Each structure stands twice: as C-alpha cells, then as structure tokens.
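hiii so um. not sure if this is the right channel but i have a protein structure encoded as tokens and i wanna go backwards to a sequence. like what aa goes where. can anyone help
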C-alpha cells in the first residue's frame, strides 16, 4: 500500500536565488508559503529538475532540505532530491564512489530533517559500456544509498537521461526489488513506454508518478497515482481535477481538465521565471533569477506583452477549477 503523499499533485518546487546566484532563504520560504496558500498540493519535491538540481552543491542541498522540512512541518511531506553532486556535464563525470557517498550522506541528512522520502535521479553521472553494465551500476548505487537512507527512495528519470541508464520493463523490476525503493517518476509523454513500465510492475509495490503533466490522464489509465510537472506548482487545481474526475468515472471531464493543463504548458513559456514574477506581484517578494546550468542556454524573461498573455491564460483557466 502506497503512502498518502504519493497520491495527487506533487509540487516540483522551484528554487529562489538572489541576483548574485546565492540561495535566497527568505525568498524560498515565501515561495513555499505561496504554494501552501494556493492549495491543491499533496507533497513538495525540493531540489527538483525545474528547481535546477544540477546547480546545487552539497551545502545548497542541506540548506534547502532543512528549510523545507522545518517550514512545512505539520503541513505537508517533503521529498528531498538527494542524488550525488554533479553538474550534469557528461564530459566531466564525478568519481562514482564520491557520488555514491554524497547521495548516501545527503539522504541520511534528509531523513534526520524529517523528509518523507529521498529522490534519486537515474545515475547517468556514471559511465557504462552497455545497458547491462548500467543496470548493474544503478542497482549497486541504489542498494548502497537505500541502506543508508532509512526512508523511502523514489527514482527519477529526468528528460535527457543517458539511454543506457533509462529504465526498461526489465530493469524496473530489478530496481523495484531493492528494499526501500517505493516509486518512480519518469519524464515522458510516450504512452507506449509508460504502459510497458506500468505493466511490468503491475504486481509489485511500486508507485508510478507521471513525470510529464500533459500525459497525466494517460498515466491514470495505466495506474499512476501522482503527477509532477510545471503545473504542479503553477496550476495544481487543474491537475487535481484531472485525477478527481477520472476517479469519479467522468472521463470526459478528466480529458477536459487535461486539455486545460496542456494549454497552460504550451501557453506559459519560461515557467520558472513567469511564476516567480507572478508570485512577486501577488505579494510574495522574491527575485526571478536562475543559476546557469551546463549545456543549457539562458532563457530571456518574457516581454511585458507575452507575460500579460500568459498571466491572463493562467487566471482564466484557474477560475474554472477553483
């Protein structure tokens, strides 16, 4: 039986930075307050992909986890991204033993702070000659971290994961058999791939989290219980309506809400900058600065006209679901 916090809309918390790139603890608390006030969120995932996980060092991870666990205690569970430290550059991979030690230590720290789970990306920080070696290395890594963590482990396959380390219908059963591994988020809208993974684990105690919100309705049809995507921060009520209507047997209504969620994904470019700017307008003071990550081009702020269009779209769609 999966825990309650693995059901519903899980916010992939955006990280608030100062203009000089330093972690902004005050701004981060206000960001969490804004999410809590808007409602519709079942759990908070910090050091997420959209939270710029590759821009974190170990101290950043500890500060974010401690802040979120303290600030949200008694309100909602915190899922902590505790993968080893790596900037995502495959030409500059970390030492595998150091990466594993980092992940184990950060996962233990998250448990001590009260996190409900540790979230580990598929470890394509490692090198592997073929898929079989990648599976063995992933299994060893997960076993080592899970043994140290003492809390449930969620796997996360972000967009662009090295194909050798991407889960398959075969490897996912191996990972699901590791004590402590409780769920997986896969960032895909490929319904065929999702079905293969969900079918392979249908008899196992592993939660499938839809990792591309445009496919939440499809994921629900395959047994998914939760969703993580940009809308989990920006418009959780719309994604919540997809799930609520689906479970009520209102498939037409669920598809309608899914279409609204898809419109918002398409209609809100640069969602992290947009949402921080929008929340600042609502009285939650914070900057919209992002850190530069390897291999990622800078994203320019929206023009005033484009921002106004995105804001109008968000408020029009939200009005239907609040």
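sure thing!! here u go:
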């Amino acid at each position: 039986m999966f825990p309650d916090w693995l059901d519903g809309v899980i916010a992939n918390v955006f990280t608030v930075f100062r203009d000089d790139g330093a972690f902004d603890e005050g701004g981060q608390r206000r960001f969490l307050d804004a999410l809590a006030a808007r409602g519709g969120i079942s759990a908070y995932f910090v050091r997420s992909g959209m939270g710029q996980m590759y821009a974190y060092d170990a101290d950043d991870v500890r500060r974010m986890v401690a802040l979120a666990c303290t600030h949200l205690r008694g309100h909602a569970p915190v899922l902590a991204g505790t993968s080893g430290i790596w900037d995502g550059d495959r030409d500059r991979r970390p030492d595998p033993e150091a990466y594993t030690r980092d992940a184990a230590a950060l996962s233990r720290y998250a448990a001590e702070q009260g996190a409900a789970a540790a979230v580990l990306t598929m470890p394509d920080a490692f090198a592997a000659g073929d898929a079989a070696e990648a599976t063995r290395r992933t299994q060893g890594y997960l076993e080592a971290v899970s043994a140290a963590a003492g809390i449930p482990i969620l796997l996360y396959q972000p967009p662009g994961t090295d194909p050798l380390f991407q889960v398959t219908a075969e490897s996912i059963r191996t990972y699901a058999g590791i004590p402590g591994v409780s769920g997986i988020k896969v960032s895909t809208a490929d319904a065929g791939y999702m079905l293969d993974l969900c079918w392979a684990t249908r008899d196992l105690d592993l939660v499938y989290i839809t990792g591309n919100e445009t496919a939440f309705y499809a994921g629900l049809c395959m047994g998914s219980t939760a969703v993580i995507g940009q809308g989990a921060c920006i418009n959780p009520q719309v994604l919540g309506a997809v799930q609520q209507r689906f479970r009520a047997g209102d498939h037409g209504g669920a598809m309608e809400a899914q279409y609204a969620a898809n419109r918002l994904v398409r209609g809100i470019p640069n969602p992290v900058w947009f949402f921080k700017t929008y929340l600042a307008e609502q009285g939650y003071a914070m900057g919209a600065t992002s850190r530069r990550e390897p291999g990622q081009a800078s994203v320019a702020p929206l023009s005033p006209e484009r921002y106004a269009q995105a804001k109008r779209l968000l408020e029009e769609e939200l009005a239907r679901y609040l």
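oh and Residues 4-319 form a domain with the TIM Barrel fold (CATH 3.20.20.70).
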